[in-house]
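Summary for the funding panel

The consortium committed to producing paired sequence-structure records for every protein in the target list. Below we show the first two records in order, beginning with the earlier of the two.
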Amino acid sequence: MMVASVDSGYDDVHEPYYIRGEPYFSYPAPIIYSDSLRYNGTTHTPSEANYTSVTVPASGASYWLTFSGQFGSFPDFNSVEYKGVINGTEYRFPCYFQPYIPDDPLGGVSESEVVCRTATQEPAGVYQFEVTVANQVSGTGLDELFLPSVPEIVDVTGCVHKVDDGTGGCHTEGGERITITGLEDFGDSTV
C-alpha cells in the first residue's frame, strides 16, 4: 500500500505526483466569489446582503453573464453550469463559455473571471452557478440568477368572428375592445 501526500496549493509549474508510476495533478477546487454576478456587462454595485440577485427579461432566451472567483491558471475548465430546484425538480443547464481572449468584450474564462451564455430551454425560477475545473467542482455560488416566466397568450376575443384561439373580422377603423387572456403576468406590456 502506498500513500501520497501532496500540497494542493497553486504553483507556477504544477508538477505531478506519482502513484504506481502514473502522474497525477492536484489543484485546489475552484471558488466562486459572492456578490460578483453581472448580466450583459452591466455595472455592478455590491449588495449589503453579500450576494447578488440578477433578473433577466425572461426565461427561454440566451443571456451573457459574468462572475468572478479563483479558477486557477490552467486551461482545464470542464464545465460551467447553473442549477435550480423548480417545483421539486432539480434542473441543471450548461452556461456556454469560450476560451479567454484578451481585450475581447465577451472575455471568456480566465483564472479570475467567467463569461458565459445561458441556454434557452430552462423553466422560470432561481438558479445558482457551479464551476468544474480540472475535474474539481466548486461549491454552489451564492449569487442568484432569476429567470421570470414568459407570458403566454391563450385567447383573443372582441371582434365579429371567433377564429381558433383568436378573433377576426375587426373593423380597420378601430374602436373595438379586444380582450387578451393569458397565463403568467403581462406586467406593463402594451398591446
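The next record, for a separate protein in the list, is shown here:
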Amino acid sequence: MSTKLHLATKTCGVRFGLQFWCLVFLPLLLIHESIPTVRGNDEFQKGKELEDTNLSHEQFRILDTQEVQLGTRSIIYHRVETPILKPQPEPLATPAPTPAPIPSAEELAEQARWDAFPQMNLFMSCTVYNDALSQGSFHHEGVNVVFWSTINFHYLSQTYDLMTPDCYYYLFVAAGDSTKEEFESQSAYAKQHGFADSTNAQWPEHLLAKSAPPEKATWQIVSPAPPPEAIKAIEDIHSYFEANKVALIQQHADREAAQLAHEQWLQANPPQPKDTVIYYFPIKSSFVPPESKQ
C-alpha cells in the first residue's frame, strides 16, 4: 500500500495592450532593490531591463523625486522624462489548435474502470493533544463525523491520497496542537454556558487504556450515526498508518528538523529592509474613451 502525491499547478498570464496603459500613468516602470544616489533634474539613472518592454538599458532623465518613509525602509518615486518607445512588432498569428489524440480501446477501458471505482474526499480538521492523542472531524453525506485516535495526525499531514482495494481517498489533513489542560478548560467553559457537545466533551481516558499493545493505534467514533463509508475510511487510514508507521514518523521528524534549522538561520541572518525605487512617466494616447466624447 503506497501513497501517491498529485500536485497540479496552473499558471496564467495576462497581457495588457499598449492602449490601456496609455490611459493612465505608468506607475511601475522599473522597480529594483538598491538605494539610488540620484537627486536632481540633470542627473541620469540607468533603468533596469523589463520583460515585455522595449525600455531595456535606457537612460532616463529624472524630473522629480519624492520619498515616502516607512519606518526602516522607504518608497522612492522618480518621475522621469518620457522616453521614445520603439514600434511594437506585429503579433504572430495564432497557430491552429492541435487535435486531441484519440484514446485507444485499452485507455477507454481503463478510464471507465477508474470512473466506476469508489472514490471519497476526506477533508479532516484535527487537533493533536500533547503529541499523543488526536481528535478529528470531517463531513460525509451531511453528517459531521467526530472521532478520537491515538495517532498523532501530524504524521499524516503530507498524505494527500490513499489507495485501497476498495476505495480511493483524496485526503487533506489540517492539524493543530493543544493540550489536555486546554481541552478540559474549554469543555468546562462550554458546559457552564450551556453549549457543550456530549459527543466530544469528555477526555477519552478509556481509549488510551484500551490501546494494547500501546504502540498500536486505536480509534473511536464519538459522533452519533456515522455513515458506514466514514467508518471504513477511518479504519483504512489507521491500517495505512500501521503499515507505514516508521516512514511517516521519520518524514515528520525530518520536516520538523528542517523547519527548526530554517528558523535558526533566519535568527542568525535576519532579512534587511530595502528601499523600493519606482520610475514612472506619463504618456499620451490617441485613444479617447467613448464617455469623454459626450
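Regarding this second record: The chain has two domains: 27-85+244-289, 117-243. DSSP finds six helices and eleven strands in the chain.
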